[in-house]
Amino acid sequence: LRPCHPGGGLHGAADRAVPPRFGQELYEKLPSPKQLWIVPGGKHIDTFNSHKKYRDDFLKFTSQNCLNKKS
Q1: CA dihedral (3, 65, 45, 56) positive or negative
Q2: How buried is residue 13: exposed, middle or buried, by Cβ count under 10 Å (0-12/13-18/19+)?
Q3: Each residue's pLDDT tens digit in the chain (71 positions)?
Q4: How many CA atoms lie within 13 A of 8 on its CB side?
Q5: Is 58 exposed, middle or buried (0-12, 13-18, 19+ CB in 10 A)?
Q6: Over the chain, what HEC string results?
């Protein structure tokens, strides 16, 4: 495995701790490959823990774009 930084972001649309616009701004600055998921109704910590479909898509993206690539 090699270190890498896939541009995957998972953000709650109802996050009051870190507003979704910050996630969007960061996403726009990342190089490809990148993907951003804005989770309807997602707050802060619960976005990852309570929204299985988005979590699974995020983990799949991370796996495909980072963990399985050779140096």
Answers
A1: negative
A2: middle
A3: 455 667 888 999 999 999 999 999 999 998 888 999 999 999 998 999 999 999 999 999 988 887 555 54
A4: 18
A5: buried
A6: CCCCCCEEEEEECCCCCCCHHHHHHHHHHCCCCEEEEEECCCCCCHHHHHCHHHHHHHHHHHHHHHHCCCC
HSE-up (13 A, CA, CB side) for residue 26: 17
